[in-house]
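Action item from last meeting closed. Structure (88 res):
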């Protein structure tokens, strides 16, 4: 779980780094650290596969030059987080 959380953080950081806004990136890094506490407390192994699948789809869309598709997948990805069982 710890390795997955770190890889997840790195994935999101790589996507966001091109914005070149150091203060924003630091705030997002801080939010990832804070949210890790909740992730560790409520981890469900069944979350891993859908999240990884979304991440791969986002990367594929970006590599193929389809940012609109990547954004649509990202929106669905973020919205699904609140829908996971065991989350309030």
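Sequence:
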């Amino acid at each position: 779980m710890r390795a997955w959380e770190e890889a997840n953080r790195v994935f999101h950081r790589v996507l966001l780094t091109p914005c070149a806004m150091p203060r924003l990136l630091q705030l997002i890094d801080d939010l990832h650290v804070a949210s890790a506490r909740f992730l560790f407390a409520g981890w469900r192994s069944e979350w891993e596969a859908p999240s990884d699948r979304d991440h791969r789809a986002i990367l594929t869309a970006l590599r193929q030059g389809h940012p609109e598709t990547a954004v649509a997948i990202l929106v669905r990805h973020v919205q699904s987080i609140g829908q996971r069982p065991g989350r309030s």
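Note appended to the action item: Residues 13 and 21 are 12 Å apart (CA to CA).
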